[in-house]
# Entry
Amino acid sequence: MQPLGMVWNSPYKRDQSAQPKTMANYFFPILLILLVWQCQDEAHTEVKPQHAALGKAFTLEQGEQVKLAASDSMVLELMLEEVKDSRCPEDVVCVWLGNATAIVRISYAANRGQKVSFCIGDCRPDPVRTKHTIAVEVGEQEYEVILLEVSPYPNTNLEETAKHVKLLVNKID
# Structure
């Protein structure tokens, strides 16, 4: 006689060939969790300001800022707020040369500062230019800020990458 509740010839018997759970069964879920966690950390990192010197060129990507020691008591901060590039790709023949623009905020001593707009290429009504120089007054000192280049130069064979600008700041005496 069989005990109640037990069926000996049931098709729902426990599979005897099932392997016990090993560390390998947990490897992929743990790997997936670590990858997602790593991506979240990178998305929330802040861009730290870099330092540069007057009279020496430096590069910035959109959202980055640089601190320049203008004198013993004054530190200029330049932040690249926006870059737009509509120049004709170098491997294409275009009717219009196009241009690249950059907006830079210049400030010191935690003030709001001023926005300066640069343009290279075909910046009508101005003539075509390969660099753009603007004189700005910060505090009581005048500086010459020069946009030297916006790179990478457009090309139809390259993937879209973050644009960066090369700037140079000189003190005007």
User: Anything to note?
Assistant: Helices lie at 24-43. The first strand starts at residue 50 and ends at 52. Confidence is low (pLDDT under 50) at residues 41-48.
